[in-house]
Amino acid sequence: MRVGQGLDVHAFCDGDHVMLGGVRVPHDRGLAAHSDGDVVLHALCDAVLGALALGDIGKHFPPSDERWADADSRDLLRAVAAMAAERGWRAVNADLTVVCEAPRVGPHVAAMRGHIATDLGLDTDAVSVKATTTETLGFCGRGEGIAATAIVLMERT
Ligand SMILES: Nc1ccn([C@@H]2O[C@H](COP(=O)(O)O)[C@@H](O)[C@H]2O)c(=O)n1
Ligand SMILES: C[C@@]1(CO)OP(=O)(O)OP(=O)(O)OC[C@H]1O
Hints:
By secondary structure, the protein is α+β, with helices and mostly antiparallel strands. The chain has a single domain (about 1-155), classed as CATH 3.30.1330.50. About 30% of the residues lie in helices and about 30% in strands. Strands 4-1-7-5-6 form a five-stranded mixed β-sheet. The chain has a two-stranded antiparallel sheet with strand order 2-3. The protein is globular, with a radius of gyration of 15 Å. It is an enzyme of class 4 (lyase).
């Protein structure tokens, strides 16, 4: 077994939605990014890569590479899962936390879990998505952006 963890942060910018766990969540701000800015899936990609000591998301999908401009982060997650599979590893479960004052994440958790389960080849009950504010403290508390953390357990196929 291997365990990996990931952390990602994106700043708010002009926009009318944010992508979180593959779900388009209506919001009065967007997230600044080279890709679709899905901070949740980026943290999860880093957790899978970290478990296998394969570097990080920026190593495999460099922000300097136009191929990843506006990329669908579910494609990145599936590519990371494929890298793991090629090396004889698959996910067992994943636990994620989204950190922001807004938008409210709770109403979208079920859809997020479904997308992540599909992309990692897991049952939905092996995927946990939680949310918290920081009680108005720090950059998340000031509404400057969204952070996400992920932990994933991997086993040999
Ligand atoms: N963006 C968010 C933040 C929180 N939630 C839900 O609210 C609960 C209470 O948040 P606290 O920061 O006061 O602990 C939290 O447990 C989440 O269920 C949310 O949906 N979206
Ligand atoms: C996802 C990638 C793709 O180029 O770019 P961003 O969308 O800016 O996101 P980040 O979390 O900075 O991860 C780096 C890149 O791999």
